[in-house]
Design brief:
The protein is of the alpha/beta class. It is built from seven helices and 15 strands. The strands form four sheets. It has a seven-stranded mixed β-sheet, with helices on both faces. Strands 2-1-6-5 form a four-stranded antiparallel β-sheet, covered by helices on one side. It is elongated, with a radius of gyration of 25 Å. The protein starts with 11 loop residues before the first strand and ends with a helix. The structure holds S-adenosyl-L-homocysteine.
């Protein structure tokens, strides 16, 4: 987002109703009024105002106008695909150790929910490369990214099947949200630098089992971990202090693995030097004097 404080045309506003404790999301358009349960709200009265300002409807009803957080934007943005939900994105960012300056490869881009989290985490010195087979999905994702982050320079999109190959090398992290990630392991092995992290998001445990078997059969990967993220909201109202009755019980599983440097990938030049030094030391010890 170019300006995190002031509301501009085309941006999303979150209208929080303090009486009902609920939130609505709207795209701000000049000259437009919306009919809310508390009266008409003129968007012109929000444009130019700062984040967190109280705005009034025609009948004096109050709403608070907030800039959407990334979590709110993701939940309200237009989508043509399933998305990775904020609870999983948050965990992915830390468990795949996405750091400022990292080069991250993801597939597919879908609606761009995960991409938004990745772009923000790698920052302007990092890079996110997204592979996607469906051009129309990619278009929607790019619109979502532009709407929330403005023009970004740290993103590259390729209309390409990740099962067919990965062009890049020396990638720090690979994050996959495709149905058959085990088909990419040969490519990921070549693309990911030693020490790099592979993470796959999958909806069913049968897919997870196939992936874990494939990862364990490949000596270039180790430290395989599988987990899911359960978030349970609580109601805190008078004596009713308890979890909400409903929760999202399942989204997907995260499978994580680490790329190691295989013995045959050791740099022979430096090993040669080390060996000759240690050989020499041994040799000296053995000298009779
Ligand atoms: N992570 C995304 C959602 C991805 S949905 C988000 O958070 O919004 C899965 C996407 O993977 C779809 O857009 C689909 O077209 C794409 N896809 C499926 N198989 C693929 C492949 N082999 N290579 C590249 N993209 C693929």
């Amino acid at each position: 987002m170019q300006n995190r404080k002031v509301f501009k045309e085309g941006e999303t506003v979150i209208l929080y109703d303090p009486d009902k404790d609920n939130q609505l999301a709207y795209r701000l358009k000049r000259g437009t009024k919306v009919n809310l349960h508390k009266g008409l709200l003129d968007f012109d009265s929000i444009l130019g105002k700062e984040d967190g300002t109280v705005v009034k409807t025609s009948t004096g009803g109050n709403f608070i106008a907030f800039k959407p957080t990334l979590r709110q934007f993701i939940m309200h943005m237009k989508r043509d695909t399933q998305i990775i939900y904020p609870k999983d994105i948050g965990t992915i960012l830390l468990y795949a150790d996405i750091y400022p300056g990292a080069r991250v490869l993801e597939a597919g881009i879908g609606s761009g929910a995960l991409t938004l989290g990745l772009l923000r985490a790698v920052g302007k010195d990092g890079q996110v490369i997204s592979y996607e087979i469906r051009e129309e999905f990619a278009k929607r994702a790019l619109e979502n990214i532009r709407q929330y982050l403005g023009e970004v320079e740290n993103h590259t999109l390729k209309i390409k099947d990740v099962y067919e190959g990965i062009d890049e090398t020396e990638i720090d992290r690979v994050i996959l949200d495709v149905p058959e990630p085990w088909r990419t392991l040969e490519h990921v092995k070549r693309a990911l630098r030693p020490g790099g992290i592979f993470l796959s998001y999958l909806p069913t445990i049968i897919q997870v089992k196939t992936l874990v078997d494939a990862l364990r059969a490949e000596p270039a990967f180790c430290a395989v971990e599988v987990l899911e993220v359960l978030v349970r909201n609580w109601q805190i109202e008078g004596l009713s202090v308890r979890p909400f009755h409903r929760m999202v019980a399942h989204t997907g599983f995260l499978t994580i693995a680490r790329r190691l440097r295989l013995p045959e990938e050791e740099e022979t030049a430096s090993r040669g030097e080390d060996l000759s030094v240690s050989d020499q030391t041994e040799g000296l010890k053995e000298l009779p004097q």
